[in-house]
Amino acid sequence: METIFFEDAGIKVTNSRFMTHGQTYALGGITSVSRLVEKPKRLIPVLIFFAGLATFGVSNSVFLPLIFIAIAVFIWISQKPKYVVMIRNASGDSRTLVDPNLTRVNKVIAALNDAIVHRG
Fold first, then answer.
1. Per the count of CB atoms within 10 A, which of 8, 49, 67, 99 is most buried?
2. In whole angstroms, what is the distance from residue 51 CA to residue 98 CA?
């Protein structure tokens, strides 16, 4: 009988399997679990910001440059890091889950570690 360590929205960790969004990994083959952080790419908001600064010298109005700058700030603030569950097995490292929710990713990692310990 399988013991369930975690189950939520397409993700399930049992004592024998790790299933995530249609992909299944045998727990017996997993040697380690880790978390990575993918920081958002900031090039677009930076370019928009500098375009806004450049329009200060060209535009007769302050309104257009402020719109560019406001859009850049909005994009910058709305970009959030993504957290990745990495597993290592005999065939190498696999990015098994990418999620913006750090708490959920930490729960999955804890469940995977508990399941690995449970297997012995």
1. 49
2. 32
CA–CA separation, 7 vs 43, rounded Å?
Answer: 37
CA–CA dist 80, 106 (Å, integer): 17
Structure tokens at 27: 């727990």
CB-CB contact of 81 with 40 (8 Å): yes
pLDDT digit string, tens, across residues 17-62? 999 988 999 888 888 999 999 999 999 999 999 999 888 878 788 8
Q: Which residue has the tokens 């958002």?
A: 40
Strand partners, 36: 84
The rounded distance, in Å, linking the Cα atoms of 71 and 73 is 5
- What domains does the chain contain, in order, with CATH numbers? 4-39+80-119 (2.30.29), 43-78 (no CATH)
* Rounded Cα–Cα distance for residues 96 and 63 (Å): 46
Of the candidates 41, 40, 29, the residue with the CA atom closest to the CA atom of residue 80: 40
**pTM, whole model, 2 decimals?**
0.78
- Cα–Cα distance measured from residue 12 to residue 24, given in angstroms and rounded to the nearest whole number: 9
